Each structure stands twice: as structure tokens, then as C-alpha cells.
Amino acid sequence: MKYSLLALLAVGFFAGILFWGGFNTGMEATNRLEFCIGCHEMRDTVYQEYKETIHYTNRTGVRAICSDCHVPKDWGHKMLRKIQASKEVWGKITGFVDTPEKFESHRMELATHEWERMKASGSRECRNCHNFDSMDTKKQKPKAQQKHAQAKQEGKSCIDCHKGIAHLLPKEYVDPDE
Question: What is the third-level CATH fold of 14-161?
């Protein structure tokens, strides 16, 4: 009895390690750019837009990929985001956005969900790379200096002002500041 309990615990321990390793490997695989652009709706629309931005090509060679902006780094928030993303995969499977045309017809709705998610987190993923306290405002244009100081004072997050930074804005979008 004593040996079988010990064997059961040992098997459970090693099975747990294997499961956890496989689970994490699978989660990380879904954070790769190749996974994100695996369907033609993403590859032919938002990926093409992103390739024209500073997040893709810039003077320093630092590139942000889809998961850098759309998947939190910490485990708890990452798991919640992955659960939300499964709904997006379901939309592909069920035909909700299975063509670029359908994607475009839902772009405003999809963008609004993403902007709300980013706003709710204080633009957490943006702040992995961009932070008010780390900005050298002397190297910014005067308007950017003023806007960043105002945003910091008002507690705004990146997404409040930078919608459309990596993707085209939906045709229905109306800028509230204009």
C-alpha cells in the first residue's frame, strides 16, 4: 500500500510536469506571428496594414508582433485573453469572419472590443515598451510633448489617443477630438 501510494504520487508528479510543459508549449505556439497570420483574413488585412507601421520596420530594428500588443505577459491575464481569443477562432470556424469582406464588415465591432480591452487594462501591453516616465520628451515634437504631458496628468492610456497606430481605423470610426 505504501509503495503504491508513493508510485501514484511519482506518476502524478511527472504527468503534471509533462502536462504543464505541453500546455505552456501550446500557449506559446499561439503567440507566434505565423500562428496569428495563419488565416487569410488576418494575413490579407491587418497584417498588411501592420507591415506599413513603425511597429514593423523602424530605425532600431525592434519589432512588435501581434502577441506583443494583443496578449498580456503575466499568466493570469494571458489565460483570460486566450479564452477570449477562442471566441475569435470560433468566429472563423462558424463563418462570422471567414472572409476578408466579412472581417471588414465587422471591423468596427472588433476594433471597439479591442480598444475597450486595452482601455480597461490601462494599455498594459503598450506600456511593456512605452512608458510616460521613460519618455525623453525633449526628443518629441512640441505637440507630442504637450499631448503626452496632458495624457499623463489626466490618467489617459495609450489607446485613448493612438487608435489606428498599427491598423487602419474602421470606416465608421469618428474621432471624438475632431
Answer: Multiheme cytochrome fold (1.10.3820)
